[in-house]
C-alpha cells in the first residue's frame, strides 16, 4: 500500500513537471514574433505580429539603429498574441535600407530581440516629386520674339536717308560774304569793265579840269 502511494506521488510529480514545462513552452516564445516594414499609402510603418496562442502580454519596443547602436526610440506597445496572430503598428516614415532593433519582453518567458534586425526596403513609400521648371520671367517673355526674328530692323540713319529726298545744297548752302552781294546784284562777271570805264571817266574829268584852268588863265591875261 505504501509503495503504491509513493509510486503514485512520483508519477503525479513527473506529470506536473511535464505539464509545467509544456505550459511554459506554449506560453510565449520569441519565435512567435515577427516584424515587417511596409507602406500605408505614402507613409511608412513597422508592424509586429504575435502568434502566441496563450495570449501572454508582451511589450514590444522599436529602436532605430546606426552602425550597431541605438540612435532613436521609435515607440513601445503591448501586444496579446493569438493563434490567428495579433499585429501592432508603429508609424515610422522610414528611410530606404534603414535598420531597426525590435525588443520583446514577456517575463518570465521572453526578454530578447527579434533576430535578425529589421532592414527596410530599398524603395521609399513616396517617390521624390520632380522639381518643376521655373516659369519665364516677363523680361524673358519679352525678349523671346526679338530672338526669333531673323531680319534686323533698319538703323535710324538708313530709314531716314531712304525716305527723305536729298537736300538742295545749291540754294540753301551759305556763300562767302563778298560773293553773296555780287551774286545777288549780278555784277561779279562785269567788274573789270566797270573799273576800266571808271578810270577813263576819271582821266577825262581831270583833262577837262586842266583845260578849263588854262582857259581861265589866258582870259585873265588879256
From TrEMBL:
Keywords: Membrane, Signal, Transmembrane, Transmembrane helix. Residues 156-167 have a biased composition (Low complexity). The chain crosses the membrane at residues 193-213. Residues 112-188 are annotated as: Disordered. Residues 1-27 form the signal peptide. This is Gram-positive cocci surface proteins LPxTG domain-containing protein. It comes from Streptomyces gancidicus BKS 13-15.
